[in-house]
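Subject: two folds for Thursday's group meeting

Dear M.,

Sorry for the delay on this. The cluster queue was jammed most of the week, so I only got both jobs back this morning. I'm pasting them in the order they finished. Each block is the input sequence followed by the predicted structure tokens. Could you check whether the formatting survives your parser before we put anything on slides? The first protein is the one we discussed after the seminar.
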Amino acid sequence: MDEIARMAGFYAAHGVWSVSDGEALIPFLGHVQADGKQSMERLVGDDAVAIGQESFRAGRDGWVRAVLVVDAYLHLDTGRIDALIVDAADYGPEQRSVKMAVPYRPGTTSQGFGVYRPKFVEVAGVDEPDYAALADAFFAGVDSHERAAAVWNAHLVDESV
């Protein structure tokens, strides 16, 4: 699960970097091949999210792991907030996945761009998830994307929403 969470963190950081300038996120799909080659594709068009979700669910030949990042709203007790939804999965014989939300405050607000603490939405494929270890792996992934991690850390709002 650590590899899945680490990859989720890397691509979540890329998503944060993408929305930090106020632009809308173009949904994207990151994946790792069996030979270790990692690549990313942006999803464009009217059905981009649906196509990305289907590709993510089914996987593709040669994929070992994949991450889908889309911009959405997270509905909380305090109201609706912008969030990146990060789905990450391992396509091995024991399919495992983690879904996270990274709430953020758009740069168009009077307070400017901000990133809130990520939230686990769902962990599947393990009996008792070690959330502390998953969070450590996730943030190791965030930190591994140096340029995006700098943006994330510069705009971190140290509070949960």
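Second protein, same layout:
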Amino acid sequence: MPQIPEKIHELTVGQLSARSGAAVSALHFYEAKGLISSRRTTGNQRRYGRDTLRRVAFVRAAQRVGIPLATIREALAQLPEERTPTNEDWSRLSAAWRTELDERIKQLGRLRDHLTDCIGCGCLSLETCVLSNPDDAFGERMAGSRLLPVRRPAPDGDEG
């Protein structure tokens, strides 16, 4: 991994990619989504602050556990722009996600435990279905996988 001298306070997109392990295209995508930011040189080249390395690491870790990009962006907006985030900053942000992650773990456990039953039932609208309709709102009104109302023939026998 290439080392960046301490006196360099900004990174090119290539340096940021090499140090963070994220592809250049991913870094451009993160920037377009407002997850990281850069300044432009007079030659219109991107330059990233060194603190962007930690932001990219945070984004990638959050993505690995399934946090949506919009949620990641909201979290990063709470971090200071002028300095590298501290352990306290990261702890505060990760604590806010604990409930969401615990709920996902619970859902995945239910999925694992009921996957065979649900696929085998065929209707995907049972009261206990944890895949497509965990609250089974439609199951209270009708049986089966139908989500559209049943068309009844017109009184004259025409379906029109």
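Two things I noticed about the second structure. The beta strands are 10-11, 39-40, 46-49. The longest helix spans residues 87-121.

Cheers,
T.
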